[in-house]
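We store sequence with structure; for instance:
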Amino acid sequence: MAVEVARSGTREIESGTAALVPVLGLLWGLNWVAVRICLDEIPPWTLRFLGFAAGTAALLGFMLLKGRSLHIPRKHWWRVVAVGFLSITCYNLFSAFAQLSASTTRSAVLSYTMPIWAVILARIVLGERLDLRRGIGLALGIAGLLALGWPIVVAGQFSMGLVYAVMSGIVWAGGSVLLKRFPIDAGAITIAWWQLLLALPVTLIGMLIFEGMPELRALEPRTLWAFAYHAILAQAAATAIWFMILESLPTGVAAIGSLLVPAIGVLGATLLLGEHPTMGDLLGLAFIVTASAVVLLRFPQPSRA
C-alpha cells in the first residue's frame, strides 16, 4: 500500500510539472518577439547584460520573500558554471545575434533544433530509452522543423543568423543533458538564480569590449514593455520553470514538449511584428503543436486483474 501511495504521489508530481511545459512555451515563445523589439534600440550584448541583471534581481527578491536557500554544495560548483555557461549565457547570446540577421520566425524555428540534439545526446550520454510516444513526438518535431526550414533551402536565404540560431539549439541541448548527467544538489530556482548571476560578468565584459557603456537615453514605450517582459518573465520566471521541468521529467520529454515555444514565437512574430508565414510555416506549426501534444498528454492505461 505504501509503495502504491508513493507511486501515486510521483505521478501527481510529474503531471503537475508537465502542466508547466505549455506555460514555458508561452513565456519563451513571446520572448522572441520581445527580444526582436528590444534589439531595435538596444545592442545585443547590452540587452543580455541588462536582462540578466534585472532577471537576477527579480528572482532574488522572490527567493528572499519565500525564504529559499541560496546554498549550493562546493563540489557541485563546476556543474553550475558549466551548465549555466551553455544553457544560459551561450544560448541567450547566440539567439540574440541570430535575430539581428535572420527573421524572428526562422531564428525561433532553427533554435528549436534543440530537442533533436537533446534526445540524441540523452540517448548516448544518459541511456534514455526512446519509447514509442517519445519517438513519435520526435519524428513529428523533426517534420515540423523541416517544413518550416524548407523555404530557406528553396530561396537560398543563408546567413550567419541561421548559424547562430542552430548553435543556440546545440548549446542549450548540451547544457540540459549535462545537468541530467551531473545533477546539482539544490532547488531548481536556486540553480536558475546562480546561473543567471554567473552570466553577468561574461555579458558585462562582452558589452564593454564590443559596445562600450550603455547610452542613457529615452527608449520607446514598447521597448520598455518588451524589456520588462524579457527580464522578469522570460529570464527570471521561465528559467526557473525550465529547471523545475528538468528535475522531474526525462530530458527527451522536456525537450520535445518545449517545441511549443517556436510555434508561439512564429505566431507572435506574425501578429505583433507583421512577419508573413508561408504555407510551409503553417504546416510546420501544425507538426510542432501535434508533437507537443503527443509528448505531454498521457492516456490512461487499461487496468489489469
